[in-house]
Amino acid sequence: MADTVVFTDHTFGDLDIERGILADVDAELIDAESRDEPLETVLADADPDGIIAMYADVDADLLDSVPNCRVVSRTGIGFDTVDLDAATERGVYVTNVPDYCIPEVSDHTIALLLALTRKVVDYNDRVRAGEWDVTAGRTMRRLDGSTLGLIAYGDIARTVGEKAAALGMDVIANDPYVDPDEVPDSVTLVDDRAELLAESDAVSIHAPLTPATEGLIGADELATMKETAFLLNTARGGIVDEDALADAIRVGGVAGAGLDVLAEEPPDADSPLLGLDDVILTPHAAYNSAESVVELREKAARNVAAALAGEVPPYVVNEAVLD
């Protein structure tokens, strides 16, 4: 009997890429979004051997409803929407795609930094409103010779650091889990996060969202930053206390922020960040390119195909399940 895989939710027009890969292991793919019924009903009817999920929460109750499921594959880098402990207890692989959009997210991070530093959005709005004044707005500062601080130093942060260094920036990083021997000479590893915040002209967040990192940047941390510094976040929104960030920008505690992610997406109309001129917001789009989306879909499907074929998937998050 062929295995069954349910794709809970997605933003793709079709699932031809996934169907082709899963067909190689004789697995049928069911698109839950195409069904005019709740996800719970689709899962109960399909009794799937695997799940692919984009935004859907995969918690203990959902896992209990699919007792034959062997793998949950997240189409993305983050995995905070999946209950890892519950999956591990049930012997279910949880996988992600940690390396599919490194060029895109690093480019997006630098783009936000350049847009803030060079006042691109502000100047554009002023010109379109009929104003032509090179002196308008806050003073611009040179990136060359300034300092970029990286919170966490994974693959994306490393690439951001390389691109920032090419712009003439000094790069420092804080990551208690990184091996100092693996840090290039162009990057200075800082043990104290407060020191990084105080020294940086721009702080870029690249940590995963976990209980330990939720609210990592709050009022106290923002107060440590320079008044001329920018905060960049292309990781996860819950890492930053957005109310505290809005307050800090309003009173001039920090110069502004470039955010691709928010704690609530899309934000409520009364979000304090929406009314601030010194905040640039993009809709969790840093990962996006034609090439990255294809890579994401292929790798997410191959994670499932490997598990259904009796192999260890290429990108296992809950390694404890291997014990």
TrEMBL record:
The keyword Metal-binding does not apply. Residues 23-318 form the D-isomer specific 2-hydroxyacid dehydrogenase catalytic domain. GO terms for molecular function: NAD binding; oxidoreductase activity, acting on the CH-OH group of donors, NAD or NADP as acceptor; transcription corepressor activity. Keywords: NAD, Oxidoreductase. Residues 110-286 form the D-isomer specific 2-hydroxyacid dehydrogenase NAD-binding domain. Pfam families: 2-Hacid_dh (PF00389), 2-Hacid_dh_C (PF02826). Signal peptide: none annotated. Gene3D superfamilies: NAD(P)-binding Rossmann-like Domain. InterPro entries: CtBP (IPR043322), D-iso_2-hydroxyacid_DH_PdxB (IPR050418), D-isomer_2_OHA_DH_cat_dom (IPR006139), D-isomer_DH_CS (IPR029753), D-isomer_DH_NAD-bd (IPR006140), NAD(P)-bd_dom_sf (IPR036291). Belongs to the D-isomer specific 2-hydroxyacid dehydrogenase family. This is C-terminal binding protein.
